[in-house]
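Q: Hi! First time doing this. I have a protein sequence and I read that you can turn it into a structure. Is that right? Here it is:
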Amino acid sequence: MSQGVQFDFNYTYSKSIDLSSDAERVDAYQGIGGGTGQVINSWDPNALRAVSDFDTRHQINANWVVELPFGKGKPLVAGAHGVLQAIIGGWQLSGLARWNSGFPITITNGGTWPTNWQLGGATVVTGPIHAKTTIRPDGSVNLFPTPLPATADGLGPFRHLFPGESGQRNTVRGPGYAGLDMGLSKRWRMPYSEAHSVLLRWEVFNVPNLKRFDVATITNNLDAGPSFGAYSGLLTQPRVMQFALRYEF
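A: Yes, that's right. Below is the predicted 3D structure, encoded as structure tokens:
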């Protein structure tokens, strides 16, 4: 902070692979994947080897604190004092930004059990998957831009399992997360003592009011009908502001 600026930036590339992102002792309809992360065929535990339910391929984090260059001792208007210093001096801008790629999701087989008496398993991909979070004409938000056409054995590029198959886990990616929080503060030094000051802070969380949908909340059963691919939850929270006034000594 010797020059009034402090920041940090980091990027992480990662890949996590497993056979099952749930512990096998977890109830079939609880845990990370609601059963989709469990071994379907105990005779072939490697059948569902894929990226983990929590795999985050790319992640960027940044944070900064910047003292604005105005007022006493700063590069601009360095000789300010009195009322002028009280207006233009002591300002500070801070922020925290984060972006990461989306989590994967499994398209499940639905209400059929070709291999396991309790767990239906995942579908098999038969063609290109065109996933793009879209607001449909009816106002719903869906992982797929248009309804997928019905086929003889499934829906679009996904088909139901044949007896003995376990399917393919985590074949589709969600939209990921993005967030930007910022704070603006102003400090007034008291004229009777430099050790006493009043600090005013204005903090805004999710500054651009971004909306990122949670792929874990989609309707992912292949036999779900018109609601297939529809979201029911968000990763982000609406924009929130808060103010604080503090006397320090």
